[in-house]
Amino acid sequence: MATPMAASFGDLLSLALLAGCSQFSFSIVDSYPSVLYLVTLFCLCLVPLWVAVASKHPASQTLLQTGWIPIVIALVISSVGGLILERTVSDPNLAGIIVYAPIINGVGGSLVSVQSSRISTRLHLNYPPGEVPADRTKCYNPCSIFFGPEPNHRSAQILLLLVIPGQLIFLFSSHLVKGAKTMPSFLLTAAFLAASVIQVS
């Protein structure tokens, strides 16, 4: 439970900092537009300093050399998702769909982080650092994660079963918060649940 809680607090703190910086930027953008460029330039000038500091530690030095590819891929995926979401919001027929985006992402991320924590905890308890179990040295069919006698298989089944009731609660709660008079349609509910199950699987 510690991982999703830490992730939630981290997201909350990041959003608070972004909101504060955005409010400050909007308050001075008309009067002092050059200040924003100076702040951006200052942050870019600090990058070599942080790279030099991080490269002094062996673990972070490895990440500096090999960790850029997943970050860049995540950045591209996030940017494309933002463009798609912007087009969706601009369509009056799909304006309400934006409410469901944080729900599907939040629940999926939380459940997967719980499963990842269980797997890493089991590895740390049963094997020394750097050692991989003999039966885990090759790639497996993703469907095999849900079938087997091990505790990780059982927890994966339970977490997958939590998706549908949890998403139904969030779906109807968000619909009521919007002040809608009617419940979501069957087609929207089915598509939302199918996307949630596929995402978590």
TrEMBL record:
Belongs to the SLC41A transporter family. InterPro entries: SLC41_membr_dom (IPR006667), SLC41_membr_dom_sf (IPR036739), SLC41A1-3 (IPR045349). It catalyses: Fe(2+)(in) = Fe(2+)(out); Co(2+)(in) = Co(2+)(out); Mg(2+)(in) = Mg(2+)(out); Mn(2+)(in) = Mn(2+)(out). Residues 102-196 form the SLC41A/MgtE integral membrane domain. It is a multi-pass membrane protein. GO terms for cellular component: plasma membrane. The chain crosses the membrane at residues 37-55, 67-85, 97-114, 158-177. Gene3D superfamilies: SLC41 divalent cation transporters, integral membrane domain. Keywords: Cell membrane, Ion transport, Magnesium, Membrane, Repeat, Transmembrane, Transmembrane helix, Transport. Acts as a magnesium transporter. Acts as a plasma-membrane magnesium transporter. Can also mediate the transport of other divalent metal cations in an order of Ba(2+) > Ni(2+) > Co(2+) > Fe(2+) > Mn(2+). It is found in: Cell membrane; Membrane. One of its GO terms (biological process) is metal ion transport. This is Solute carrier family 41 member. GO terms for molecular function: inorganic cation transmembrane transporter activity; monoatomic cation transmembrane transporter activity.
